[in-house]
Amino acid sequence: MLTRLKGFLILLTMALLPTFLIWLPFFARLKSFWGIPLPLMGMATIVANYDGPLFMVVAKTFYNPEMIKNLFQFPLPVEYYAAHFPLFPLLIRVFSYTLGYPYAMLAVTLASSFLALYFFNRLAKSFVGKEDSLWLTLVFAFLPARWLIVRSVGSAEPLFIAGLIASVYYFRKGNYWRAAIWGIVAQLTKSPGILLFLAYLAIIIGPEIKRLSISSLAKWPEILALKKVFPILLIPLSLLSVFILYGIKLGDFLAYFHSGDNIHLFFPPFSIFNYSAPWVGTFWLEEVIFVYLLGLLGLSNLIRNKEIVLSWVTGVFLVSLFFVAHRDVIRYALPTVPFLLISFYPTLIRREFKTIMVLLIIPIYLFSLAYISQNVMPISDWAPFL
């Protein structure tokens, strides 16, 4: 019991301490840190970071068009909010009764971050010993810096990634009900959750494709062991429930696809290098190639080690990344990060990397401060959010 409590407290510290250190200069209203100018709005800077206020709009109105129009100042069509899936706002609403909306949002983000690190640690233990799994979890607490940023502001990504890791963890163990439940959590949080279902579908069907091609449809359920894996079908059904909710609340079953420029998938692949694209806007994009490189190297490691589940999940998300045309491509790559870290674990647990990681904490911290200080939505009236 004491050992479990100690492990729990270590993971909790990993989840909370880096975020609190990110918050500290803003909370103290420092004018600058390490030469980086900082806003003097206190914790309002953290709360106002994109897309936190938009999730609070959904939390307070739950997609009610009239409330959105009457209460909030943002010049956005009501359909825009369909891009913000309901689970994260719903949790904000639940905790708002005791914490208020701004701090409920941050509390849900922190709790979700802990869950993500907790399930990553459990997954890592499948590959390395206890001490190395804790080290890998510490690395995951900081890398990439974009991950540290989204778990330090109001963001749905930590809840999504927690659901994703937990679902994969249980799927590898053959516990399909728990895999489905956590897959539903991921799906109700962000639209890319459907990619997890597609990966599972490939894992289930792929090995049996030859048998299916020569068998009658009546035998397919037996070949695919549908009695065991059928809970996975609840993931797309949960997506359907979101669209039904939009049909009821917004009067448009397909409101998500009418939410404006929130869908950043473009054909042909690698359209991100079109510097004139609306959400690109720059030709300084060489680091995107390194994102692809690390992703493909990690995927090749998983395939070589015959990690079928991690390979398919990483591969499906990575392929979708090739079609993303958005300057913030690393945020779209975050679902692959836990599994890529696992793929590189022989390197990451070496003493040399541990030394490098200690040095990297400084630039990670400074980048996080700079990013958060500039990624702020303009809010002139905070009253509707309180």
Automatic annotation (TrEMBL):
> What is the phylogenetic placement of the source species in the record?
Bacteria, Candidatus Woeseibacteriota
* The name this protein goes by in its record: Glycosyltransferase RgtA/B/C/D-like domain-containing protein
TM segments? Answer: 7-28, 40-59, 80-97, 103-121, 133-149, 229-248, 283-302, 309-326, 332-349, 356-373
Keywords from UniProt, A to Z, are:
Membrane, Transmembrane, Transmembrane helix
Origin species, per record, is: Candidatus Woesebacteria bacterium RBG_16_42_24
